[in-house]
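Ticket #4471: structure output looks truncated?

Reporter: J.K.
Steps to reproduce: submitted the chain below (179 residues) through the standard prediction queue, then opened the result file.
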Amino acid sequence: MSKRVLVLYYSQSGQSARAAAEWTRERLDDDHRAWLRALPLTHEVEDATLVHASPESPDEWDYLVTAEDGYGAFAHFATRWCFVGHSHVASAWSLGSSGPDYDPFPTVVTAEAGRRYIVNVGSVGQPRDRDPRAAYAVWDVEAGRVEVRRVAYDVESARAKIVAAGLPRFLADRLAAGA
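Returned output as attached by the reporter:
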């Protein structure tokens, strides 16, 4: 992809994301907005930290995309597991005495003694890994394992609803490509 096309893609993506955020904001009432504002940026459940973006600075909405992005985030949470999203790309990082590991396409992540994990659970809507199926993860606390699952859904119907709502066509088109 050339730099010119890449810049156009990101510019269009940012403008479309802003349009979608504004569309959503217009449909929320004051009670819903207040409820969302009151949510914490990080939350601990069992032995896991939940955060939408990076645990390093959750209020800056940084993406964890590369191996290095994930490795740098381990110092910013104390639990064994950290579940993130934001990039819409399922991936997994681990760190322990045998060194770091990164899996850009995880299906199952099983806890090993002495290791900690960051798992990006993917995205039910608007996946960005060239696979249009919805992605989500199931954490089995007792088994110490996370399974990243993919499921097909009616993409064409979702695309039609995006266009009918008056949202940018780019959002509908990227849905079909998983990009």
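Triage note (M.O.): checked the attachment and the full token line is present. The chain has five helices and nine strands.
Status: closed, working as intended.
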